[in-house]
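re: that complex we talked abt at group meeting.

here r the seqs, copy pasted straight from the sheet so there may be weird spacing, ignore it
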Amino acid sequence: MYLEFRALVRRCSLMVDQRVLEDLFAVSQPGLRDHLQIHGVNISMFTVSWLLCMFIEAPFSLNDSLLLWDYLFLFGDEVVFQVALHLLHWNGSKLLSLSSMGDILEFCLRSGIKSSIDIAAMLRSLLDTTLGKGKHSLGLT
Amino acid sequence: MHAPVLQDLHRTLPNEALFQSEEGRRSLERVLGAYSVFDPDVIGYCQSMNVLCGGLLLWLKDEEEVFWTLVSVIHQRVGYYTKTMYAFLVLIGP
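got the structure back, here u go
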């Protein structure tokens, strides 16, 4: 029974991570989350492809996602969550100005989200603030 | 060859010059085909692996390196890539 449960959880780890992301989003940006919820948008509608494809294709350009993958391989999956939350945060005001489910989904899926982002700066600021704390031995300068 | 792999070859990063060429799509097919033989029971092939593989091919060039990198990326995320996409069934389900 326990093993079956474990197997099931392992099979669903994408869904688990998705839920974790939703919860982190709800805690860190409750205003934006309420706005999306009012219009019937759940962030997993578009973040599933971010998680599965590791941000290739959408919402970044290929060169940007190359940079992102460097961070991903160095710091692990934490980067995925941090970047997803940052993307939502940086596009918060734009998302708040959209007021229908169709507009919001169109904006998020058709990579309207990427245009305003300087990913190098974003990753550097992540590195300075949160990433890899507790991993002192990496020798990064 | 795995039918779903063939189906997705033309949909993989269609804006990249590499995958507009027959040669690029052939290497994609070889790497994904190799993976589906390597791990037939658990995953074989699932959509979105083609995108990962395409990205890796653009940067690494060498198909063998791409293959092993793909293996490690996928094995790090047990439960993301599955034959039947259970996760989606649960997300969509009642």
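couple things i noticed - The first helix of chain A runs from residue 2 to 11. Chain A touches chain B through 24 residues (CB under 8 Å).
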